[in-house]
Amino acid sequence: MSQITGQMEALEPDPIDVVVSKTIEGRSPWQLSMARLRRDPMAIITLVVIFLIILIALCAPLIAKFTGHPPNMQYRTTGLTPEGLPRPPGGEFWFGTDNLGRDVLVRIAYGARISLVVSLVSTVLTVTLGVAVGIAAGYYGGIIDSVLSRMVDFVLSFPFILFVLALVAISGPSLVLLVIVIALFNWTYVARVVRGQTLSLRQREFVEAALSLGASDRRIMFYDLLPNVLAPVIALTSLLIPLFVVLEATLSFLGLGVPAPTATWGGMLSDSVVTYRQAWWFVVFPGAALLITTLAFNLLGDSVRDAFDPRADRL
Amino acid sequence: MSANTVSPEVLLKAEHVVKEFPLASRRLWGGEKLKVNAVSDVSLDVHRGETVGLVGETGCGKSTLARCLTRLYDLTDGSVNFDGTDISKLRRNEMRPLRREMQMIFQDPYGSLNPRRTVGSIIGEPFAIHAIAEGQERKRRVQELMEVVGLNPEHYNRFPADFSGGQRQRIGVARALALRPKLIVCDEPVSALDVSIQAQVVNLLMDLQTEFNLTYLFIAHDLSVVEQVSDRVMVMYLGRAAEIAPVDRLYSNPRHPYTSALLSAVPIPDPDVSDRRKQIILTGDVPSPVDPPTGCRFHPRCPKAQDVCKVEVPPLASVFQDPPSHQVACHFPLADGEQLVGTGGGELGAITIEEAK
Asked: Can you give the pLDDT at residue B25?
C-alpha cells in the first residue's frame, strides 16, 4: 500500500516546488459567463441596439431642440391639415404629427425615457423584493416559508388589471404608482425561482460548513446563497425588462399609466386609435419603437440565459 | 498512531444522546405522529489526541450523531460536554466561540465548497467569521495553511472547479484547520475519493494530527480506512452503539454478531486468503428507523437472536474477561474464536454462511 501510495505521489509534482512567476488567477463563473456573452454576436448586436435606445432617451431634449418642437407643443396650423388631421412624415415633421399636431419623433424620444425608467426601476424593485423573500423563505423554511409562500399565492391570485383600475380610481395615475404596482405584482415570479434554488442549495454541504464555522444567518444568505442564485435571477431579470416595457405600454394604453400629456409609447398608441385609417405613421412609429425595444431586450435575455447556463462550455 | 495516554482527559463526552426527526403529518389534523429515530441513546467519550472511528452502514445515524456532537443539530435528549462545557443546551450565539475549537471535514469535496468563491476566500472564511486576521495578514495565513495541506499557495485566487477531488478535500482540511481547533469531526472525508487519493488524504490527516495535536472523530463506512487511522472504534447499528473497542481488539475479537458480519465483508486483496475466508452475508434489509425493532435492534437479522432479544434492549457492557474499554451491547456476545453460524435462531433465518469455492 505504501509503495503504491509513494508512486502515486511521485506522479504528481509537489505543488509547492512549482515555481510560478506570475500570479495565477482563477476565472470565476461570472467571468466565464461574461466571456461567453462577449463571444455571442446576437448579444453584441442587441446590446448596441439597446445602447442606441438609451442614447435616444437621454438625448430627447437635444432632439427637441434640434427639431425646434417641444414634446407637448401642439402645432395647430403647421402640424395639422386644414381638415384637422395629422400631417404625414415630411420636411418639418420627420415622423409626422399626431392628432393634436405634436411631433411624433420628439414624443417617441421622450416616450423612450418613460419606458426605460419604468421598466428598469420596477425590475430593480421586483428583483430585490423577490430575491429577499425567496432566499428568506428557502433558507429559514418552516413557518417563515409557509407564510411567505402563501403571500406569493395570494398575490398571484389577485386580478391585476382590476386592482390597478381601482387604485387609479382612488389616487389617480402617476409614474410612481405605475412602478410600485408593477413591482408589487411581479416579485412573486422571482421569489418562486429563488426559493426553489435556495431550497436545493440549503442541502449542500457548504452551507453546513459555514454553519459549523459559526457563520450568522445573514452571512450565509449574503455570501453563500446569494452568489449562487444570481445566475438564474440574472436570466430571469433580462426577460422581466421587456415584459415590463410591454406592461408599461399596456397600462398607459388603458390610461392607467403615466397621465397625459406626458409622452409614452402606450399613450401614443392609444391616441392613434382615433385616426389610424388616415395616419399610419402615428401607429407604426411608436409601435416599431416598442417592438424594437422589446425584441432587443428579449434577444439579449436569451443570450444572457445561455451565457449563464452552468452546462455551457467552459471556453 | 497510538492513543495519547499522556493526557487521558476526555475532550468530548456524549451521554445518552437522542436525536429524532419528526415526520410531517400528511393529515390536516389527528393522525399518528411519526418520527425517524436517527440516534437513540448513544454515549461516547473522546479523549484528547486520540482518533475515534465511527462505523456503520449508510443510514445508521453516524453522521447525525456527528452533527449532534458539533451542535449542527439540536439534541432531542441527552447531553454533550465539550472541553468542560455542556454544549447541548447552548444557544447559537453562545455556541459561536466554541466553534473555533471544533471543526468538521465533509464528505463531498464538491458540495462542501462554495463554487462561486475563490479558494482564498473559502479558507479565509473562518478568519472572517471570527474577525481574526484581515487583509494581507489573512492572506498570509491562508497561504500558510495551503502549504501545510499540500496545495500551491499561488492558487489562492482559483475557484473550486479548477481543482481535482483530492485537492478540494485538502481545501476542506485547510479550512477546518484554520482556527487550530482541538477536535475535528471528519464525516466520511475520503469516501468520495479514488483509492490512491484516499491514502494521500488519510496520510495528510494523520500527519496533521501529530503536528497540531488534534483529536479526531472519524466517520467512515470503509472498515480498512478506519482500522488504519483509529485508536478506538465504535460500531453503530440503526441509531444505537453495537460495540466499542480499541481498534486491534475490535478487529481481532469482535463480540457483536453485527461487527463480525461487517468485518467479514471487508475485501481482502489476496485471493487465496479471500477464498479461504468464510463470508457472512446478512439477509434482509436494515429496518426502517421510523419503526425500529423492539429490544435489540439487530435481532431480526441476527442468527444468535433469542426471545429475550426481542424484548430487552441489551446494555453496553464489557463481557467475558474483556478490559473495560471493550464494550458490547449484546445478550449473546461471541466468545473468543467463536464463528458466527446460521443457526436460524432469528425469525428470518437472518445469517447464512457461504462457503467460498
From this structure: 67
- Do the beta carbons of residue B206 and residue B231 sit within 8 Å? no
Does this model's pTM top 0.90? no
Residues 6+ apart with CB under 8 A from B182: B11, B48, B83, B101, B102, B214, B215
B57, HSE (Cβ side, Cα atoms, 13 Å): 17
Between CA B223 and CA A81 the distance in angstroms is 95
What ipTM was assigned to the predicted interfaces of this complex?
A: 0.81
Residue ranges covered by each domain of chain A: 53-78+102-307
What integer best gives the mean pLDDT of chain A?
83
Encoded amino acid at A247, one letter: L
Task: Look at A233 and A96; give whichever has higher pLDDT.
Answer: A233
Provide, as residue numbers in chain A, all residues whose Cβ is less than 8 Å from the Cβ of B72.
208, 211-212
The whole-number pLDDT of residue A156 equals 87
Quick check: B331 pLDDT over 80?
A: yes
Q: What is the architecture of the domain spanning A53-78+102-307?
A: Orthogonal Bundle (1.10)
- Mean pLDDT (whole number) for A22-26: 57
Contacts (Cβ under 8 Å, ≥6 apart) of B282: B261, B301, B350, B351
Segment holding B352, helix H or strand E: strand B351-354
Sheet holding B77-82, edge to edge: B35-47, B10-22, B77-82, B85-86
For testing the chain A interface, which of B87, B98, B152, B201 should be mutated: the one with the most A CBs within 10 Å? B152
